[in-house]
Amino acid sequence: LCRGGLAERLCRLQNRERSAISFWRHQCISDNKIPSDKSGVLIVKILEIFEECTIQVAICQQLDQSLAMLSPEDAVVNAEEPILKVLFTRETAAHLKSRPQDVIHIYPPWQKLLLQNGDVPVIMNTYFSQKVLLSEHSEAREKTYGLTKMLIRKNIISLAQTFGLDDLDDKLHQESSDNQVPCAPQTHNNGDSKLHLLAQSAVNDSLLEMVESQGAVGWREVQVRVVIQRVYCLPAREGYRSHTQGNKPLLSNGGMFCRLCLLVQDAYGMFSEVQLQSLSSTDDIEQYCRRWEGKSCCLAGMKILQRTTRGRALGLFSLIDSLWPPAVPVKVPGQSQDSEMMTTNLPPPSFCYILTVQSGEIHVEVDEEEQISNLYQPPAVHGLKEILRIDGCNERCSFWARVLYQRLQTKHSVPIDQREMLLFVTDSTLQNVVHGIPKVVAVSVTASCVLSMEIIEALSAGSQLVFFKDALWGNGRIICVERTVLLLQKPLLCSAAGADLSELTGPVRLDELDSTTQANSICALRGTVVGVNESTAFSWPTCNRCGNGKLELYPQDRELLYCNQCSEVVTTPVLKMQLEVFLSCPSRSQSTVKVKVWQEITLFVLLTMLLFLQTYEVQSVLGKEVGLLNCYVHSVTSHPNCVALEEIVLL
After folding, report:
1. In this structure, CATH architecture of domain 521-647
2. What is the band of 220 on the pLDDT scale with cuts at 50, 70, 90?
3. In this model, does residue 377 exceed pLDDT 70?
4. DSSP symbols for 372-386
């Protein structure tokens, strides 16, 4: 807010007003009595209550001071007493919990508004109001009513009707009357029919109208109809488990708690993120994607968790931008819906409401038998070559690729469950390229991207075709972040956009090491052995059953080794070794190429065999040609000019 501006002054005034109201209510509760000063107090008895434009309107009859101290049952109203229309804000109404026949004391500074064409005066500024309970019967009745739910009649008036922007036909009047629900406590006898009537009458199609009319406290008696554009999981704070789920365990992503989320869009193009409950397994995310995406659903029992903007949630809005403009013309507030609406000139949303469920409420009602909505935009699948040529930044992209190699980033200062993982992928569009574009690209999977156990287990078993949905492209990198979903099966609905999505037919080829090779990539390497670093060569024993490389001395016999994982003595350990070899490569003739090799790798086997045949003479392997080797590039430095690699085995 601008310093000294009208908005800042209004904000301060509202804060002082809220403080004054809270202090007054606290004083009344602590004194446990009605303020004795009756000067200027307006005493009314409620006859009828309804809600209009988030304001609770009470039709009341003014009481004389002589009747003020009588209980509501004994306060017989004189028909000649004036009728008043009293306005209560949502907060005041929630505090009073008023019902017909209640007596309310309204303290100054209330104001009376006389309308030109109205017979009933309107009472405003009713923040300092108190319900009167003067008898034991009244208190008992209040406790009984407190256990039942009050259904308030809502007069839903559209802005188009208020400003005469729409045709006022009989249908509109009929809809307005249908939206009125009788004001009565919910009982076991007639509650079901009233709730059914409520469900039928209070379905809206505007998220923004629901937020403005229902406020932040939650939607209790209304529903809003939306289309599910995306289904995904988000990591949740550990405190979320105890806050909403009690003792029910949340699904885990490497020790991270996660929750199911929906990105929904209404008929006006407005987006909202709905954060739902936990899943029993991360594998459920795939079935929810297939069952729910593209379907219409009704939201109820929601409350606003946050109103976020583009500057505060770049990841969320990059996903929203990929779904904008809408696939079909959307409604425009304040305009007749019969006219042809264009969506190309509509500005993208600048804010989004994060909604969450209220415990004990009906949350999401999805009609899975319904046809896919025309508003739904399936992920647009592109080939990797096309993605690498995108000029924009923070663009969402979806692609189908084969994972060749995975590697966890080894930053020792970062916990394992918060480290990034690199997936090296390729497809037919990259393998068929002659030059200029890499044959393999690295996809960075951040810790905030929730992976299902099915994906994790499949990648550990071998090379897999994986569908990357809504990954982020920018600054020459593909990143899987929050709201990115990895699937083993392609969605039922997706648009190929003319991309070449054919399967790989021949063996996978890697780019050879050259002057353009960068760190944290994989490449093919050929060269001549010029040296072996004997000082860094080492060996270690491993368990012959499980492969555990951290064996300990057996306490009962210090000459034997013990495996903690197998809980058994290791009598025949497998010896593993590591070597560093220096190569001379024609493609990097000016660089020192250092390759770390392991026992299982082809280069190590070749060197060990040569050394063994020559009675471990290092000179016997110098000048030997090796290649093509698959290597991971650890670092590329110019001072000194050195490339450090590690030989790897592709999945």
Report:
1. Beta Barrel (2.40)
2. low
3. yes
4. PPTT----BB--HHH
